[in-house]
Design a protein that fits this description.
Layout: H1 24-39, E1 57-63, E2 73-80, H2 86-99, E3 115-127, E4 140-146, H3 148-155, E5 177-182, H4 186-190, H5 194-204, H6 213-218, E6 220-232, H7 233-245
Antiparallel strand pairs: 1-2, 1-3, 3-6, 4-5, 4-6
Helix pairs in contact: 1-2, 1-7
Amino acid sequence: MSLLPSDSAAGGITPESGSDACRPEHCFHAFDALYCALTKAQPVDPVFPNGKLDSPLFVTWNTRSSRPGRAPRLRGCIGSFEALPLWDGVPEYALISAFRDSRFRKIDRSELSSLECCVSLLTDFEDATSYLDWTVGVHGIYITFSHPLLLQSNNSSEAPSPLSSSPYLPRVTSKQTFTATYLPDVIPDQGWDKIEAVDSAINKAGWTGRITEDLRRSVKLRRYQSKACTVGWDEYIQWRESQTTS
């Protein structure tokens, strides 16, 4: 599942405040997976504990601007909502995000020096009581909703005929379930309030029709939090050299 970029710092290692679950080593091994895939170098063995996570993970690649003060630009972001062993999940989604985000061409070797990598571990999933039951800057959102025509058809007292021209008749070819997510830092970075964020997620899920209050109220929303860390290419190379020469 692809996401919008976080507004990562322009340089250095930047773990989130209070984050001890996600470590720079996670980002180093994500970088190492990409570097080795593109150069055929031998990977460095993981130095962080393995084991089953209680939370999903996402890997985000950004391109850092050469101009000071410019925010990094999204280059790929995909993750899993299933708990994964870190030794497998981090390199796997590092490569999926780099090579299989349909919004972008594959990352190539010439781009390595301009990249930064952010690994996010998602925690504290809760079912919201409404589409507004979450806090900007604290929660990410995962939304699910049915095709509005299905909702209207189900609420209708009389089912329309297959020959009817009624707008409430769902087309067989219509996408019937929509899902989308935004990581916690995306929403404040974009400057959205709750309604704007939910509306954007509805569009991101693939809905291109009019967004009504009824549609918003039909959304099932799960809120979650994130522990994340970001490193750049220079930090990764320093780490790799220290690991391969020790």
